[in-house]
Every structure is written in C-alpha cells, then in structure tokens.
Design brief:
alpha+beta; 8 strands; L-fuculose-1-phosphate Aldolase; 37% helix; 6 helices; 203 residues
Length: 203
C-alpha cells in the first residue's frame, strides 16, 4: 500500500478537487475526496465548502475512527463512508465521491451502465454495481457501499452519486473520470439505437 505525508498530499487533493469541478463531476459543495495517510489517519475535504475553490488549509485530518486531529472545519458529511472503506480494504489509499451527471442520469432513468461496450470500461471499471438508496452520511450507506466493494472499484449510489477508490489519489480520480465518460457514451449510444457490445472471444 502506498502512503504519503500530509504535506505531500494536500496540494494533490486540491488539484483533484479542481479537476472534478472543471470536468463537471461536482458542483458547489457537492462531493468529497480523501486520502489515507501514513499511520492510518485520513486527509479529507471539509463539509459545506465549494470543492472547486478549496485551499490546502481547508482540509481536515481525522483518525481511523473519524475524530478530528487537525483542521478548523468540519470533515465531510460522508466521512463515515470513507473510513468504512479504508477499514474494509487495506489496499485502498484514496476515495473519491461525486455526483456525475451522465452516470446519475442513466441510473435515474433505470438504464443500465454498460462498461462492456468499451474496452477501456471493461478493463478499468470491471463490474459497476448500483448500491440501493440510503440517506447520505449514514452508517446504513457506509455498510451498503462496503458490502459492494468486492465487485469492483466503482459503485453508483442510487439517487445520489458515485464513489471510486484506488491505490493512489489519481487512480481513484481516473476511475471516476472513466465511469462518467463510459456513462456518457452509453447514454448517447442508447439515444441513437441499440448499443453493440464488445465482440465475444476477443478479450
């Protein structure tokens, strides 16, 4: 598992948040990003602040149980989900949660995301499951997400958003970007006709 220092990761978290905002994956105070630090503490974005305009000093450090160790703001309202993922999966060092428009649109319209349409989706996303709706920020949601971790690195949260995790911060970001890109292509293909899956026996 790759771990890094707080001081090394703060600027990277800010860069990821700005990329998420610039790509339309979050709006206003939506979404949250966290990284596991050396020793098991977690660096996480604050609650109620616009993620596209955060400063390094806005980030909050908590221990593995969610107790604040450093920072003047409140940690993300989804802290319980982040810490639950880290406890369940020792390989994960970063978690990204957003409200991606194309992914949510497919989910809300009862259309299935089809990662097998694209080789990139099949290779990087694998099976993408939809976690049944639970209220944001609750233990119930955290348990539902943790229960689906074995299926792949990306989950859609019904009527809510999506969460990705990875062995590095940028890998978790790339998975979220890939999820939304695949969702957009899936939606556009469905608008034009019946999508064609990857040819069997070629993979």
């Amino acid at each position: 598992m790759t771990t890094q220092k707080d001081s090394d990761l703060r600027p990277e978290v800010i860069k990821v948040c700005r990329q998420l905002y610039n790509k339309g994956l979050i709006a206003a105070a939506d979404g949250n990003v966290s990284v596991r630090l050396s020793g098991g503490d977690v660096l996480i974005t604050p609650s109620g602040m616009h993620k596209g305009f955060l400063n390094e000093s806005d980030l909050v450090v908590v221990d593995s149980e969610g107790h604040v160790l450093n920072g003047s703001g409140r940690p993300s309202s989804e802290l319980v989900m982040h810490t639950a993922i880290y406890r369940q999966d020792p390989v994960t060092t970063a978690v990204v949660h957003t409200h991606p428009p194309w992914t949510l649109a497919l989910s809300l319209s009862d259309n299935e995301l089809l990662p097998h349409l694209l080789i990139e989706g099949k290779m990087f996303l694998g099976e993408v499951t939809t976690v049944p709706f639970e209220m944001p920020g609750t233990e119930d949601l955290a348990r539902a997400v943790v229960g689906a971790l074995h299926k792949g690195p990306a989950q859609i949260l019904a009527h809510h958003g999506a969460v990705t995790r990875g062995p590095s911060l940028w890998k978790a970001f790339e998975l979220m970007e890939c999820l939304e890109h695949t969702s957009r292509i899936t939606a556009l293909a469905k608008m034009l006709g019946e999508p064609m899956p990857l040819p069997e026996g070629k993979i």
